[in-house]
TrEMBL record:
Residue span(s) of domain Glycosyltransferase 2-like: 52-218
GO molecular function: glycosyltransferase activity
Record's protein name: Glycosyl transferase family 2
SUPFAM superfamilies: Nucleotide-diphospho-sugar transferases (SSF53448)
Keyword Glycosyltransferase: yes
Domain of life: Bacteria
Organism from which the protein derives: Spirosoma linguale (strain ATCC 33905 / DSM 74 / LMG 10896 / Claus 1)
Any Pfam family: Glycos_transf_2
Keyword line: Glycosyltransferase, Membrane, Transferase, Transmembrane, Transmembrane helix
InterPro entries: Glyco_trans_2-like, Nucleotide-diphossugar_trans
Annotated transmembrane regions: 300-322, 334-353, 365-386
4Fe-4S as UniProt keyword: no
Family, as annotated: Belongs to the glycosyltransferase 2 family.
Length: 408
């Protein structure tokens, strides 16, 4: 029984971090043999009215840069509206934004108010004021590339498309601890999976920092929802709407200040993933959702919910087999070798952790550190979700720019 569990855990890890990507690539190759790739017409004259919704709770440090970025976007000014949600802010965000409105900034709208609430609740309220056919959600601490709006909305020429997801890039800096090679490898793998997944009618998941959708498809979500964009997009795809991945529309964000802050942020993100998984359990019904269920299980459930528990399970099961097989030298050598490999794996992870803490990088330890890091965060996130009922608020790790601005 223990041997079966060990093989199962090893198999799940192998499938999650390698097998699914390979299988997806093969499926795409086979699909291309029988289906011609469609090309989206790039009509520059297709410019529907758009509302860019930006959640900016207590983010006055980021507001000037974000506002400047908004006005630099290549899109007709008479068809682009900016809606900043500062509801509940106590750092002067609402007052500062309102002062700009007084200066006749016609494109700018602000949803203020002193009553604090969750992001989901604030977005539900804000969407009641959106009248444009297309709405785009963006984070206040990210920068959009100049053609983001055009690259997103062009897909809505296809009436089957309900949601378009953009890409997210983390800016690298040689002096920053949290932007090492393993993060770049992770982003590259994420982009690869999105690109391959996007070749199918059902895309799983969206980048939280950039999402466009048809306004008429928006349905109010639970106020305590943490992963708002992901929950919205998955419910729409379950209803039969298409989600398109557009890598030419992207956001740029500074890395967080330290690995400790990244750990805190990752634990909160893991908690949110468990919450979303529990609310989307119906998507596991493969007889009803078919390929969507397969993609969702492989790319989301196994990777973020199941895989974190496999790593410590392998160690514990191996130790149990090692002690139980002491009287059988042939089997004992196998478990001893596996234990030695795990010791080396965790040693490399620790070296990577110490190196990042000192702002050093060693690419050879990047992968072990990433796998161990995600496992720890996943387990802590599960414990936090099990013990507490998330209220839909975030305590995000601050990017380095925030630290520098507050220190100046």
């Amino acid at each position: 029984m223990l041997q079966f569990l060990l093989i199962l855990c090893l198999g799940l890890l192998a499938y999650t971090y390698a097998g699914y990507g390979i299988l997806l690539l093969l499926a795409v190759k086979i699909q291309n043999l029988f289906k011609r790739t469609s090309v989206i017409a790039d009509h520059s004259d297709y410019t529907p009215s758009v509302t860019l919704v930006i959640y900016a709770y207590n983010h006055i440090v980021n507001l000037p840069a974000k506002l400047q970025n908004c006005y630099s976007l290549d899109y007709p000014t008479d068809k682009l509206r900016f809606l900043f949600i500062t509801q509940g802010s106590i750092d002067g965000s609402t007052e500062w934004m309102e002062s700009l409105r007084d200066d006749c900034a016609r494109q700018l709208d602000v949803q203020g108010g002193s009553k604090p609430g969750s992001k989901a609740a604030a977005m539900n309220c804000a969407m009641q004021t959106v009248t444009s056919p297309i709405v785009i959600f963006s984070d206040v601490n990210t920068q959009l590339n100049r053609l983001t709006i055009r690259n997103l909305v062009r897909h809505f020429q296809d009436e089957r498309v309900g949601v378009v997801a953009g890409e997210k890039y983390i800016e690298a800096d040689t002096d920053e601890a949290a932007s090492g090679p393993e993060n770049q490898l992770f982003r590259a793998c994420e982009s690869y999976l999105y690109q391959q997944d996007a070749r199918f009618p059902k895309v799983v998941g969206t980048v939280s920092a950039l999402l466009a959708m048809r306004t008429k498809l928006y349905e109010a979500i639970e106020p305590d929802t943490l992963l708002v964009n992901f929950t919205l997009s998955m419910r729409l795809v379950a209803q039969g709407h298409r989600i398109v991945y557009e890598p030419s529309a992207y956001t740029q964000q500074r890395p967080v200040y330290s690995i400790e802050k990244e750990l805190k942020r990752a634990v909160e993100l893991s908690t949110a993933r468990f919450q979303s998984t529990m609310r989307l359990l119906h998507l596991l019904n493969i007889t009803r959702y078919g390929w969507l269920s397969f993609h969702y299980t492989s790319q989301w459930v196994l990777r973020w919910v199941v895989a974190p528990f496999c790593l410590p399970s392998i160690l514990l099961i191996d130790l149990a087999l090692l002690f139980s097989a002491q009287s059988q030298p042939n089997q004992s050598s196998v478990w001893t070798l596996l234990f030695a490999i795990q010791c080396m794996f965790y040693s490399l992870s620790y070296i990577g952790y110490r190196a990042k803490g000192k702002h050093r990088r060693f690419s050879v330890v990047g992968f072990p550190l990433y796998i161990t890091f995600m496992s720890i965060c996943g387990i802590q996130g599960f414990v936090r979700y099990w013990r507490n009922n998330p209220a839909g608020t975030w305590n995000k790790a601050r990017p380095i720019d925030d630290i520098e601005l507050q220190a100046s």
